[in-house]
Amino acid sequence: MSHSSMMGRHTTFRYCLDPTVEQSDVLARHAGASRFAFNQSLHFVRTALDHRKTNPQHPVPWNRFDLINAFNAWKKTEAAGRVFAVCPDGVAEIQVTGLKWRTQVCQQVFEEAAVDCGRGLAAFSDSRTGRRAGQRVGFPRFKKKHKTTPSFRIRNKHPKGGRSTVRVGDNDTARSVTLPGIGVIPSPTGWSKPTTGL
Q1: Is residue 148 pLDDT above 60, yes or no?
Q2: What are the residues whose beta carbons fall under 8 Å from the beta carbon of 54, sequence distance 6 or more?
Q3: What is the pTM of this model?
């Protein structure tokens, strides 16, 4: 008996969006959060590598899971945010807020940025050890606001009994994309020719 293997097929569509002013601000906020999370994840790695110079056993978050866990733990700490509050009796106290603006963007944006950092580290490692063919890949660099194309990535969730979180063609119009936390964004041109890969 022979067995045939199944290969996954992925189709990518490109959309030209026409967001409102408010939606443009939210999209920019998501892109900024993605850049911030990538840089913070890379900062975790660089700091851990510095500690390893004096303590060879010091752990270094390197893969996407470690980086996601590191960021999720950090975002609730005093290092991520704090305020000084003065009580009526004049005593000042530190209140830990963590990353206060984190609720303004989708959680997935932070996680996917950490994943991107992990992919860059994996490419660097594979390139150094010869597991990756082609041109040598350097160590990931911090993303600069004015030199990096604004972008972010979110996953499409499919809750049981509910609709997908990312949808095309809501509100009786085929020319729109719905994103969680942002809403329905019109697309003046609809979708362009898809690219398909295995």
Answers
A1: yes
A2: none
A3: 0.83
